[in-house]
Hints:
Elements: H1 2-6, H2 15-28, H3 31-34, H4 38-41, H5 52-59, H6 68-80, E1 90-91, E2 94-95, E3 110-117, E4 121-129, E5 134-140, E6 148-152, E7 155-162, E8 167-175, E9 180-184, E10 197-199, E11 211-215, E12 220-224, E13 235-239, E14 242-249, E15 254-262, E16 267-271, E17 282-286, E18 289-293, E19 296-297, E20 300-301, E21 305-309, E22 314-318, E23 329-333, E24 336-343, E25 348-356, E26 361-365, E27 376-380
Antiparallel strand pairs: 1-2, 3-4, 3-27, 4-5, 6-7, 7-8, 8-9, 10-11, 11-12, 13-14, 14-15, 15-16, 17-18, 18-21, 19-20, 21-22, 23-24, 24-25, 25-26
Pfam family, one: Kelch_KLHDC2_KLHL20_DRC7
Domain BACK: 2-58
Protein name: BACK domain-containing protein
Amino acid sequence: MRTILEDDRLHAPNEVEDTFNALLKWIHADVAARKRYLAQFLPLLRLAWCSVPDFEKVITNPAINGDGDCLKVLDVIYQSTTRKFMAVGEVAGTDLSHKMWMRPRIPKDIIFVFGGWADGAISNMLTYNCRTEKWRDMGNQCTPSYHGMAVIGQRIYVLGGFNGCECHRTVVCFDVALGRWSYKAHMGRARCYGYIYAMGGFDGRSRTRTVERYSVKNDQWTNVANMKYMRSDASAAAACGRIYIAGGFTGRRFLETVECYDPSTKVWTLVKSMPWLSSGHKLVAHDDIIYIMGGSNNNGRISFVTQYDVRRDRYSDLPSMPYAKSNFAAVVLEGCIYTIGGFDGMNTVQQVERYDIAAQKWYTAPQINTKCSASAACVVRDIANPGWGR
């Protein structure tokens, strides 16, 4: 048990609900022999990074309340939770940063954000550690804006985009494990916006309804069936083995139409339209439910959020985003949707919001380092290089 609790790589989204409760179950399995270890093992938990309500759950737990040794340990740790108001680990002038309870665990999943736009193309790469709730700027990576991004294993593919002068058809791959970039086969058409299935987009002259599919194994693009509508500024997500693309802009009007592509039949079909016209919105999928957020249309920026049940072909309204915006990045991490940056109709923004899917509530998350729209984000899971999480 000591070895497990000491390991920085232990995957514990919530240190109290996951790790502390696991410790209690281990002790309760043989109370007579293991009760004495509780005070010894408490300092191995990363309780300084817990919220105050979670910490209070530990203090008031019947196994702790009344145990003098445990309460002494928790008293020191509790003081270190003032990290939000003073230097981390500083308690009454004493440096406690070397203590294990002060050391955050290394997350197994990391958010990566590439490129974007703010008075010109931005080429930086950002990473987000959900344990420390901090962004890191990894510097210039020569990435564009208005591009697509997809993850396969430990590799991130950046497709197409716009560098401020021209649209690209290039595809570059970032190997997270090695920290290296490599060029891959170009798409058939230059595009802004795309995925491993590159759908629609803008080639600098017109919108398109063409679709290309990229084989990672063969490093080769092939054409597949065209969509029914030409569109750029759309968003897509995969659910139940099918691809859904929604909304967008034809060059003349905003769209609310949604199309579904079944790779097994190689056919596009129209499904129930979105509740609003939109471009520059975002789709993300979680547990085969698609969430549609924000965007813009003739009425301005949008804060609406809805979920689409692909099995029932039905929409359900959800709490709106705190800010109306378009052209933001969005990912799902540990049961939460993060909306990153964007454009509010007048300015690019650096706000980040976090939506707890189970609680159906929006929260403010740490801002990105600079104002940015038209970036792309992804989550690399089971990350092989722990250095990204430090």
